[in-house]
Amino acid sequence: MAGGYDDRDGVIWMDGKLVDWRAANVHVLSHAMHYASSVFEGERCYNGTIFESRRHSERLHFSANQLDMPIPYTVDEIEAAKYEVLKANNLTDAYVRPVAWRGAGEDMGVSSAKNPVRLAIAVWGWGNYYGDAKMKGAKLDISKWKRPSPETIPVHAKASGLYMICTTSKHAAEAKGCSDALFMDYRGYVAEATGANIFFVKDGEVHTPKPDCFLNGITRQTVITMLEQKGINVIERYIMPDEMESFEQCWLTGTAAEVTPVGQIGDYNFEVGALTRDISESYEKLVRS
């Protein structure tokens, strides 16, 4: 595919049927556009199989329920729709993007109970999320924004509104020549990048922030299991920013990022070491097996 995401060949699954890619549009008064009533997933399909597909569909339902917008399609129906749109676009290796949102309807204020919940699934070919950083290590800025308290917003939903500070932080990072930005949380602890979880290595052990105010990614959970199966001790804990000076290696995890080494965060530097390369290669083998 080439060109803008609104001007491509192919089809998108939308509200139960396949529609031409360029015709997959919504009204300007859709509730989601004004009040962020939208949730989504990002998934990877390798060799015709979507990795952890059902867990993603289940999480989509969970996120929607957190926003009080139950999806009118079952997990089984969403699973079938994903493979239907992959087949229709003749794709076996692809990025899969389901998105559910409150559409246009009788309500056009904060309340939206009378508006329908809509669902679309788009698929496209997508390479490395961080480009050549996948090999040499990403460079991260440190965001001025912080991940919010669970008392302020449904932090465990994969909801569009939670990504506002991600967009602004990534724009600022790219302007400095960085690939991404790292967030601290509302307490000042290390949290995550704009669209990926983070891991550190010290003395043969792996340290990763506790996901108590941000998304506990499916890739994150997969990588922790892989590390434990390799006999690596994984410590989930609160990490202070100045501890990054003592860490030897670092990587990011996410469906789009997969496992991406990190070479620098602000003034802190990391080697792309043996454990980082091993878990990256092992993950790539797992998802393609």
Task: Give an overview in words.
This protein is of the alpha+beta class. It folds into two domains: 11-124, 2-Layer Sandwich (D-amino Acid Aminotransferase, Chain A, domain 1), CATH 3.30.470; 133-287, D-amino Acid Aminotransferase, subunit A, domain 2 (D-amino Acid Aminotransferase, Chain A, domain 2, Alpha-Beta Barrel). The protein has seven helices and 16 strands. Strands 8, 9, 10, 11, 12, 13, 14, 15 and 16 form a nine-stranded mixed β-sheet that branches. Strands 1, 2, 3, 4, 5, 6 and 7 form a seven-stranded antiparallel β-sheet that branches. Helix 2 crosses helix 3 (75-88). The mean pLDDT is 96.
Q: What are its keywords?
A:
289 residues, alpha+beta, D-amino Acid Aminotransferase, Chain A, domain 1, D-amino Acid Aminotransferase, Chain A, domain 2, 7-stranded antiparallel sheet
Percent in strands? 25-35%
Largest sheet: 9 strands, mixed
Identify the CATH class of the largest domain: Alpha Beta
CATH architecture of the largest domain: Alpha-Beta Barrel
Q: Give Rg in angstroms.
A: 19 Å
Query: How many β strands by DSSP?
Result: 16
Considering the protein shown, what is the CATH homologous superfamily of the largest domain? Answer: D-amino Acid Aminotransferase, subunit A, domain 2
Shape: globular
On the 0 to 100 scale, the average pLDDT is: 96
The structure class reads: alpha+beta
How many domain units? 2
What is the N-to-C succession of helices and strands?
EEHEEEHHEEHEHEEEEHEEEEH
In short:
By secondary structure, the protein is α+β, with helices and mostly antiparallel strands. The chain contains seven helices and 16 strands.
